[in-house]
UniProtKB/TrEMBL annotation:
CDD domains: DPBB_RlpA-like (cd22268). This is Probable endolytic peptidoglycan transglycosylase RlpA. The gene is rlpA. Keywords: Cell wall biogenesis/degradation, Lyase, Signal. GO terms for molecular function: lytic endotransglycosylase activity. NCBIfam families: rlpA. It comes from the Bacteria.
Length: 394
């Protein structure tokens, strides 16, 4: 039994040795084969793709509204609170003036910094390059003297509806504070800021107006017909007296607005310039009816007693005649035209013969309105209204 097992073990051992030897030869052969083979090429490592440069963008021209750059006004232009013409104005940028652009032009507007405030200007009026200043002209030269072509009103604002702060006479001059805008020039007038319509101004000197009949201050003016002297330069102001035809007063000012300021019996008054003349005026001829003695006429008896007043201005009477303040005529509400009346002042007894050619007076309590000439025959025009009796003359 022992020998048989020993023999088996021996065979197994020889088999293992044989397998090991064969394996070793195979391994050696592989090593030798690798030694004589062509050297292996080194393995290439793929490199990362090189970045492709982006195409260069085309350089756009610098717009007028380039942020942070100065922009210049090509003309005097409004600076507004928002990017719309309906927004409030916060100032004016004159031609050639410059501001800093806060943004590029958007929607036709450029956002700018104007006197420390953010504003908007229409981009079409802006330039990136400097702009030449406008050349001064006659009435648009700021700080220069401008002369009045005729007597002109100086107003508080640039509108004809604003208050008047004075009058600049023909050839008078003031300093222009701004260029003409909207037809008006801003000026310095007697220490105040005012506005004058530019069409009445000139940069060149203007010849002074020659003195004329009713415009020569300090000269005598004569009444072409009996005329009312008023307290102010308006027909609605109070009457302070009557200047008879050919009467004269001293003019205190040139004619303005159709009125001449005069010195009348030591008082300042106003007379409509159309009734005044620088030349002497002939006194009115005595009216034939007035020259007739009132005591010699035949009357039909008393027609009544009432208050009588007078009037001294008008153009045409109710019957179509040309009005004359010196004529011996009167107005009555209903009496037939051509009727002659003897009018007597109840207080003084003085009488005058008048002819009815007009209608009036339309004041309660009054029945007759005499011309100034007729009224002055029976009472002073200063009394205004007197009590009279009147009779029809045959």
């Amino acid at each position: 039994m022992i020998n048989t097992q020993t023999s088996g073990h021996s065979r197994s051992l020889r088999r293992i040795v044989a397998i090991s030897a064969a394996t070793g030869v195979a391994v050696m052969g592989s090593v030798v084969e690798q030694a004589h083979a062509a050297p292996a090429q080194p393995t290439k490592v793929a490199s990362a793709p090189k970045p492709v440069a982006a195409p260069k963008a085309a350089v756009a021209p610098k717009p007028a509204g380039q942020a942070g750059k100065l922009v210049y006004a090509t003309a005097t232009v409004n600076v507004r609170a928002r990017a719309t013409t309906s927004s409030a104005k916060i100032g004016m940028l004159p031609r050639a003036g410059h501001v800093k652009a806060l943004s590029a032009s958007r929607g036709g507007w450029t956002k700018v910094l104007y006197k420390g405030k953010v504003g908007y200007i229409s981009s079409s009026y802006l330039s990136h390059g400097k702009v030449a200043a406008a050349k001064p002209s006659a009435s648009r030269s700021t700080g220069r003297l401008v002369y009045a072509k005729t007597t002109v009103t100086v107003r508080s604002r640039a509108t004809t509806s604003s208050a008047k702060i004075g009058m600049l006479p023909r050839a008078g001059h003031v300093k222009a504070l701004s260029a003409s805008r909207g037809g008006w020039t801003k000026v310095l007038y007697k220490g105040k800021v005012g506005y004058i319509s530019s069409s009445y101004l000139s940069h060149g000197k203007v010849a002074a107006a020659k003195p004329s009949a009713s415009r020569s201050t300090g000269r005598l003016v004569y009444a072409k017909t009996t005329v009312t002297v008023r307290s102010r330069a308006t027909t609605s102001s109070a009457k302070i007296g009557m200047l008879p035809q050919a009467g004269h007063v001293k003019a205190l000012s040139a004619s303005r607005g159709g009125w001449t300021k005069v010195l009348y019996k030591g008082k300042t008054g106003y007379i409509s310039s159309g009734y005044l003349s620088y030349s002497k005026v002939a006194a009115p001829a005595r009216n034939s009816a007035a020259s007739r003695s009132a005591s010699r006429v035949t009357t039909t008896g008393s027609l009544g007693t009432c208050k009588a007043s007078f009037y001294g201005y008008g153009y045409q009477t109710a019957n179509g005649e040309r009005f004359s303040a010196s004529a011996m005529t009167a107005a009555h509400k209903t009496m037939r035209f051509g009727t002659r009346l003897k009018v007597t002042n109840k207080a003084s007894g003085k009488s005058v013969i008048v002819r009815v050619n007009d209608r009036g007076p339309f004041v309660s309590g009054r029945c007759l309105d005499l011309t100034t000439g007729a009224f002055s025959r029976i009472a002073s025009t200063g009394s205004g209204v007197v009590t009279v009796s009147y009779q029809q003359v045959r």
